[in-house]
Amino acid sequence: MLEGLRVLEIEGLGPAPFACMMLADLGADVIVIHRKNGRPAPGMPDRSIIDRGKRSIELDLKSTEDIAILRKLVSRSEALIEGFRPGVMERLGLGPEDLSAVNPDLVYGRMTGWGQSGPRAQTAGHDLNYLSLSGAAWYSGNPGEPPFTPPTLVGDIGGGALYLVTGILAGVMAARAGRGGTVVDAAIVDGSAHMMNLLMALAQTGGLSMTRGQSLLDGPHWSRCYACSDGGYISVQCLEPKFYAEFLARLGLGDDPDFASQFERSAWPRQTALLAGIIAREPRAHWQALFEGSDACVAPTLNPLESMAEPHMTARGVWQDIDGVLQAAPAPRFSTRPQTTARKIPARGAHTDAILDWLKTE
Description:
With 362 residues, the chain is of the alpha/beta class. It has helices at residues 15-25, 64-75, 88-91, 96-100, 127-134, 153-179, 188-195, 197-203, 241-251, 268-279, 284-291, 304-309, 311-316, 352-359; strands at residues 6-10, 29-35, 55-59, 79-82, 107-112, 182-187, 223-227, 233-237, 298-301, 319-322, 325-328. Strand 10 and strand 11 form a beta hairpin. Helix 1 (15-25) packs across helix 6. The protein is elongated, with a radius of gyration of 24 Å.
């Protein structure tokens, strides 16, 4: 879908390379500029899933010769993405003003936690810090306990990478319409706060409380995960009354007065304890079979390997094992294109010679 779009990625961590992976999954020509003679960041493999589908060239951005190569790449690209602290690219002579002189239509994507401006812009931080400041971590965890650390999917990917992808595509559309290039300031604090608007809409109707454990999505007995007798878990989230009724009916609790009041906040702790005791009596497979095919809004809580074998996920081909690497297929899907298999993961610098030869052709 993005064939014809060329994006340069300056090697980094987390949300910026994930955003570039998504653009590559969608068909963009993503050239990742890996550090010359560099090693992957600690904890990262030599060949990372998030580099799949990209072309890799190794450059030293402190080398005058290699910076000249990068500037040639900029002249042939529509977007560039970097994820350093504010000011780093400027000190290398590769900031937005420097590169707009090479390509006035360049969309310059900047991925940070705190943003390009503000009192915290130059300070260190990680996913949990950004979510905590933006309000997005407030409802994580059970009432009476400190909020727990959400997976980095919430901040790095949801509030960061996906907003960066949106910003890049919006900028490219504007540039192609003749309105020139732009700088995309994608900050996790901005994106994660923006995602909170879905919950803030509940606040308008009383469904969201500033007190933890008193909102429709973080307090009820019908909106949480429960432990089963075998150590597995099931998720329950039957918000609508008709789905809640189906849930109780499947459990044989349709006429039980203890569960008659679905939205009585004062009853939630006791109802939660009662349900926890019921579900703990049987293994996860029992509950899966009981709720299979129903509208009770119950699903097993699976790890990625279990998810790969689950019938619905298998039917959709969501999880794929490519060259021994478990990974999820590109998303979303399009009616005009067949479902795609994740593309190959390149070795660092695998396309250096080919890219240098290509730059000599014009």
